Amino acid sequence: MNLKCRLILEDYRKQRNDFIKLGDTVHTMLSDIVKELGLTVLAVEHRVKEERSLAGKLERKGDGYNTLEDITDILGCRVVCFLSDEIDKIGQKVEENFVIDWKNSSDKRALIQEDAFGYLSLHYICSLPAGSKWPDEICGKKFEIQIRTILQHAWSAINHDIGYKSDFGVPREVRRQFARLAGLLELADDEFVRARDNMVEYTEDIRRRIITDDADDITINMISLNEYVLNNQKMQSIIREIADIAGAEISEIDPESYIPQLAFLGITKLGDIEIMIKENYDLAMTLAKKALSAAGLDIVSSSVALRFLCRAELLNKNYDFNKIVEFLKISLGTKEKAERQAKYLLSQREEC
After folding, report:
1. The predicted structure's pLDDT at residue 114
2. What percentage of the chain has pLDDT greater than the value 90?
3. Average confidence (pLDDT) over 272-297
4. What would the mean pLDDT of 32-54 be, rounded to a whole number?
């Protein structure tokens, strides 16, 4: 290693702690960006290059660097998101919060050839602005931010492990395989976005139909049931009544666990729940009063109405002990618990 490279390494040793401090700062900023955007991501991560790794880089490419400042990946940060359209959302916030070295930054997605293979990350070379709220010793230092999807991340990891970073010297058949794989991953990324958009569109349509009382024929699933509990006026009224009985606040939870219970009762459409409310409201409220009036609860879940409506259905439709046990096992798990609850529930039939 020549003198210039040895001086760069010496400078790295002196500044390593500053890069560690910078890494922690940038990691926090990226995490805050993700939170501000309301996104769920696979990972926000960073690493400071180890001395051995930097030495190896200098051995290979030392002629291209004159000082430590010429090396822009001493600190590398990465955000791995789930959907490809989230890359640009995060990227926009990165551009707003960091000083971008546009000359050395690149959008790999735009650079890739249509018949080539590679990973399609968005790369920024950034720094913190001097004279800002951060310590002077970490401002102005350049670092790399990569933003990619989980599929792009998998591609990069596999590609790096195999070692095919270019097509030079790679057999033609292998190049074709990688091109097909790259196309499949890109298509999968696009389809995930479409699936998300379809879910949003479906949810909005279900919500609109529930609010306008045009949802009787909608099949019960995790989306339709949740929207029904949240937006149907009758259901919301019952939930509030039960919460008042307990003197408790309402905690909104996903009622998905009630789907198999409703199916057991033959309730598969939202209109079936409407009928269940009409037929079982009085008994459901009586059961709720017996169970909750002296329970001393501070919080009841938003699915509490389904709980008592289902139990009232069991009693009003004269389900026998074994069937009630079978129903209760869906939520309670063990036969022993289900049998105890079934005996208690049948005792309420006699009292009511």
Report:
1. 45
2. 63
3. 92
4. 95
Evaluate whether residue 270 is within a structural domain: yes
Considering the domain architecture, whether residues 22 and 151 belong to the same structural domain is answered as yes
Domain of 81 in residue numbering reads as: 3-189
Residue 219 and residue 270: Cα distance in Å, rounded?
Answer: 6
Q: Are residues 182 and 322 in the same domain?
A: no
User: Is 234 found in the same domain as 185?
Assistant: no
Same domain for 82 and 11? yes
Note whether residue 208 is domain-resident.
Answer: no
Regarding whether 151 and 33 lie in a shared domain, the answer is yes
Q: What pLDDT was estimated at residue 115?
A: 45
Same domain, 154 and 95: yes
pLDDT at 89 over 70: yes
The total number of structural domains in the chain stands at 2
Annotate 263-296 with b (16+ C-beta within 10 A) or e (fewer): ebbebebbeebbebbeebbebbbbbbeebbeeee
Rg (CA), the chain: 30
pLDDT value for 111: 47
217 located within any domain: no
Residues 104 and 231 in one domain: no
Domain-embedded: residue 54: yes
- Residues 132, 231: one domain? no
Supply angle C-alpha 157, 161, 166, rounded to 5: 90
Q: How high is the mean pLDDT of the chain?
A: 88
Let me know: does 81 contact 87? Beta carbons within 8 Å.
yes
Residue 282 has pLDDT above 70, yes or no: yes
Model confidence over 206-238: pLDDT tens digits?
999 999 999 999 999 999 999 999 999 999 999
pLDDT at 161: 65
CATH code for the domain in which residue 45 is found: 3.30.460.10
